[in-house]
Amino acid sequence: MGPVVSAEHRARIEGFIKSGIDEGARLVLGGKRPTKPPLDKGYFVLPTIFTHVKQNMIIAREEIFGPVACIMNLSHQMTK
């Protein structure tokens, strides 16, 4: 996984990650900057996975343009 384009974009992605946590999604992988060389230099964000994401959460509604995946369970809506 390569770096994102700038420090500003990395900060934007980190804001989305914080938003997901604050809104109750479960962070199951990543969500941080790498701390080991050589990835500790540059604009890297570890691949990030959220579960328990609801449609009304910011991370589900916005395009993050970063290494963040949101897993949603929509099966309850299919039966209605």
Tell me what you see in this structure.
The N and C termini lie far apart (39 Å). By secondary structure, this protein is α+β, with helices and mostly antiparallel strands. The chain is 30% helix and 14% strand. The longest helix has 16 residues. The mean pLDDT is 92. It has a 3-stranded mixed sheet, with helices on one face.
Q: How is the secondary structure organized here?
A:
Elements lengths: L6 H16 L3 E4 L18 E4 L6 H4 L6 E3 L4 H4 L2
Parallel strand pairs: 2-3
Antiparallel strand pairs: 1-2
Structural class: alpha+beta
Number of DSSP E strands? 3
H and E string: HEEHEH
What Rg is obtained from the alpha carbons, in whole angstroms? 14 Å
Strand content: 5-15%
What percent of residues adopt helix (DSSP H or I)?
A: 25-40%
Could you give a short account of the major beta sheet?
3 strands, mixed
Termini separation comes to 39 Å
Model regions low in confidence, pLDDT < 50 over at least 5 residues: none
The whole-number mean of residue pLDDT values reads: 92
Widest sheet: strand order?
1-2-3
DSSP summary: helix tally: 3
Tell me the overall shape: elongated
